[in-house]
Every structure is written in structure tokens, then in C-alpha cells.
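Schema walk-through. Below, the input block comes first and the output block second. Nothing else is stored per chain. Lengths vary across the set, and this one has 292 residues.
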Amino acid sequence: MADIIGNKAAKNFSENVPFANSGDFHVKGSSNYDWGMKDRLSRIFNPESGKTVMLAFDHGYFMGPTSGLERLDILIPKLANYADCLMGTRGAIRSSVPPTYNKAIALRASSGSSILQDDLSRESMVVDIDDAIRMNASALAIQTFIGADGQKETIEELNKAVNLGFKYSIPTMGVVAVGKEMERTTQFFLLATRMLAEFGVQIVKTYYCDDFEKVAAACPVPLVVAGGKKIHEKDALTLAYNSIQGGAAGVDMGRNIFQSEYPVEMIQAVGKVVHEGFTDKEGFEFFLDLIN
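--- output ---
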């Protein structure tokens, strides 16, 4: 076992130095992957901007019909055209997402307890890789708890997905889950995102935090920032802007889009910030112009 005694805290993140092993591919850390893996990553991350807007609607697998997601069959068709990637469960995707949309799919492949049991930290990979292939999944999304009771089990499930993903050229997105006892500090996210990347995932979904540019610089694969709980549209656009400016390769927003009073307009404004370089102020002005 590595001796952690005497280790020094990392300081030199060279935040302003571009990633050194990009080659001619637009996704960070992916230059040495095979054609199939790169093809799927190119469906998720826009080749022109190198960024992604993911639409997350996988909340029902542990929360039931969340506010805003009561009717996926009505909501998703309104929003899908403005997202680069749809993140959901196989049941929701098969039932409510027309295959004619031909969108990248981040398939929620892990599952565990419901919110009623109040213990979400012991998820396992529940989607068979053959079913993921049948669904033409662009990525497998596996939730991983770092610093929580379920850390060992969820890390094992994550590595199972990574191994199968490399076998069939399907990227794995490691989803950083924060245990109830963990603080959302820079040090925590430096650890969690780096761990997942070193396990072999191609994408890490995480949260925005202080000194986020250090977290992004220290992670050798793209970070996608979660939208989190519903906040005001202006604040959500600021979150998206700060994430991109801090080095994120995109956002994965759910409640801040589908719980907005104007979800179609909101997802378009997020796209302007992520792909077209709008500031948060410009994005909010764009949003207001659409709704007025």
C-alpha cells in the first residue's frame, strides 16, 4: 500500500496550460482511443465547440415522478433538439424518446435504493452490456460514491463498466456522488474526479466548486458539471458560464431546465453559453428575449 504519510498537498496545477496530449481530437484525453470510442464521444461532445449540453432526466429511477418529469413523453420531444446528449434510464428512453431523434444517449446503467430508503450509496451496475449495445448507447453512466459507506462497492461497479466499455468501445461516464457526510470542497472534488479518471472513465460528471479550474486542470478527461437543484434561471446560467470558464467541457442540467417555467427557452440559453461563448449576462438576456 502506498504510504500517505508525508505526502504534500498538490499546488502546481498549471491551470492556464492546455492539456498536452490532445492530438488532433477534440475530446480531452481521448487521442489514444480507438475509432468506435471516438465516434461515440463525438456524438456527445460537439466537434466544433468541443463541448456538450446534456439533458438529465434520470431522476425518476429513485425519486419517482419528479416535478417537471410527470410526462416524459410530452417533455422530452420539446427539449431533445436543443441537447447534444440525453441522459436517462433505458425504460424512460425506450418509452419516451423517439429513435428518429438520433441523439447521443448517456445511459443510466447503475441503480440502487429509492429515496424512501434514504440510502443511495450502494448502487450497482444493473444494465447488461448487451442491452446497452442494443440501445446504441453513447456512454454508460455509473454513480460512484467517494468518501461514503458505499465507496468500495460503487468503485467496483464503475470498474466493471469501464472494462466492458473498453471491450465494446462504449465510453463510461463516472458520476461523482457526494455522501451525506462529505463537504463539497475543492479538495474533495480534486480527489474524486482524479480517482474516477484514473480508474479509466472517459467522462466525469461532477459539481462546480471553489477553485474549479484546479479540479479541471488536474483531471485528464473532460468534466461535465451537474446542474443540481433548481435555482433561478439567471443563477443557473451563471453556473454554466463559470463551469465553462473554469475548464468544464459541458453541463448536464436537469431540474434547472425541466423545472423552469420556460424549459425550451432555458435549454436554448444554456446552449448559447456552452457552445457559442455567451456570457451568463448575455445568456440571460437571450432567455428574456425568447420569453417576451
